[in-house]
Amino acid sequence: MKSTPLPAWPYPRWLAHRGAGKLAPENTLAAFRLGASHGYRMFECDVKLSADGVPFLMHDAELGRTTNAAEKLGSGSDGVSDIGGDHPWSVLAQLDAGSWHSRAFAGEPLPTFESIARYCIRNGHFLNIEIKPTPGTELFTGAVVAQHAARLWQGVAVPPLLTSFDIPALEGALTARPELPRGLLIDALEGKPWSDWLGKAQALQCQAIVCNHALWNTDTVAQAKAAGFRTLSYTVNDANEAQRLITLGTDAVITDRVDLFRPA
Q1: How far apart are CA 192 and CA 90, in angstroms?
Q2: How many CB atoms lie within 10 A of CB 115?
Q3: Is residue 213 annotated as part of the catalytic site, yes or no?
Q4: How confident is the model at residue 76 (pLDDT cuts 50, 70, 90)?
Q5: pLDDT attached to residue 264
Q6: Does the pLDDT value for residue 79 go beyond 90?
Q7: Is 0.85 topped by the overall pTM?
Q8: What are the tens digits of pLDDT across the range 81-102?
Q9: Model confidence over 1-41: pLDDT tens digits?
Q10: Closest Cα partner for 149 from 123, 131, 168, 124?
Q11: Which domains are present in the chain?
């Protein structure tokens, strides 16, 4: 399959997953700082909305794994919701998002998207924002996150890359701020041919496809590039697998092992 030249891609090859992989509490400013100390200039993070519409960083829908919500709020018992998106930011801002990881990070707060954006912009870092909606808010979350990203990066040469597994979230982002680059996240083919996923990415006017690394092979990379997409992989923590993906000609690798891979 003949490939056509793709537009210049302004992002680095190496992305630090959730800030610093597993070396610091994920999706916190401390993680971003640690990732940067290892030489990383691009970060992946997860963004969702509080009940009052404040974008903040968190992967899970539930608060329990990465905060002290059960202790602080009694969430998960007596009818108190454990869903982050059910609480206003004034409540979420009080939570400890570091102690679950280790004592060294005790007291690390959940960060707002705006605080992370300002850190990245001020330091010349790039950002891959995974839109991670609370179930039932996909379209709205995609639109709000895109609007905030456009506002925060106004006048900055390289905007953030917006990605999501949720089609409605990407539809919301496309409708709200079509000028921002988007990427479709894919975990498994789920019995569908590869061409179906390419078609979804084309319908969403995506610039990139971000795959579970095992899905990339000679054929899928060639098809994606022929269709005009950049090719990114997650979450790659093995040196042999990273080299396989580089040899295939993929564009970027998302890793937890910021201590193993030195970004050029």
Answers
A1: 43
A2: 15
A3: no
A4: confident
A5: 75
A6: no
A7: yes
A8: 999 999 999 999 999 999 999 9
A9: 444 567 789 999 999 999 999 999 999 999 999 999 999 99
A10: 131
A11: 14-62+113-255 (3.20.20.190)
**What's the per-residue H, E or C state across the chain?**
CCCCCCCCCCCCCEEEECCCCCCCCCCCHHHHHHHHHCCCCEEEEEEEECCCCCEEECCCCECCCCCCHHHHHCCCCCCCCCEHHHCCHHHHCCCECCCCCCHHHCCCECCEHHHHHHHHHHHCCEEEEEECCCCCCHHHHHHHHHHHHHHHCCCCCCCCEEEECCHHHHHHHHHHCCCCCEEEEECCCCCCCHHHHHHHHHHCCCCEEEEEHHHCCHHHHHHHHHCCCEEEEECCCCHHHHHHHHHHCCCEEEECCCCCCCCC
Segment 95-99 long-range contacts (CB within 8 Å, at least 24 positions apart): 95/63, 95/67, 95/68, 95/69, 96/67, 96/68, 96/72, 97/25, 97/27, 97/28, 97/66, 97/67, 98/25, 98/28, 98/30, 99/68
The larger pLDDT score, comparing residue 79 to residue 93, is at: 93
87 is catalytic: no
**Nearest in space to 181 (alpha carbons), one of 228, 137, 121:** 228
Rounded Cα–Cα distance for residues 34 and 24 (Å)? 7
Question: Torsion angle of alpha carbons 55, 125, 20, 264, nearest 10°?
Answer: 150
Retrieve residue 181's tokens: 């680059």
Q: Which amino acid is at 81?
A: S
Active-site position among 17, 87, 125, 213: 17
Marked catalytic residue, from 38, 59, 87, 125: 59
- Residue 60 Ramachandran class (φ > 0 left, ψ -120 to 50 alpha, else beta): beta
Cβ 183 vs Cβ 209: under 8 Å: yes
